[in-house]
Predict the 3D structure of the following.
Amino acid sequence: MLQEKIATIPVTIETERFTLRPVRKSDAGLFALYAGDKRVAEATQGIPHPLPPGTAEAFCARAMASAGEEDIWVMDGTRSALPEVLGVISLKKMDRNQSEVAFWVAPAFWNHGIASQAVLALVAANPQGNSTMFAEAFQDNPGSARVLTNAGFQYLGDAESFSVARGANVPTWTYIRKLG
């Protein structure tokens, strides 16, 4: 018998100022604009810089066809007269009912509480029913570390992760959040 993974569609999560919603094909243009910014790419593990043609479209296709390994949401500000894409947040499934949180926000919206509100909303909704969430921040990005600690994540230790945009391993702070 052939078994196929059924794509899961992330739930929509409301925050005070914006909505966390599933990725749409129409998001590719703003993804390319924002993720193509060197500051965004260098703050993530997986975004290359410069952004190769077709990368944003491939990201949208992967997010929309998710086989359940990772749920990805767009921070959509349209209901508050903000842009349709403010950033992205995701939960990548791990073993033992755990996930890893990752996020990025477009530079125009840095220091406006967007990332903090998104992480808090995702933790509160706990759409995968996790017992534990992990996250990490590059050590030269204290803003992301503050987002995590403000959302109740506890410092776990130092590590390092490869950054595609930097082409190097980068020191990180790792965090844990125990849930319910």
Remarks:
- The first strand starts at residue 13 and ends at 14.
- Residues 1-7 have pLDDT under 50 and may be disordered.
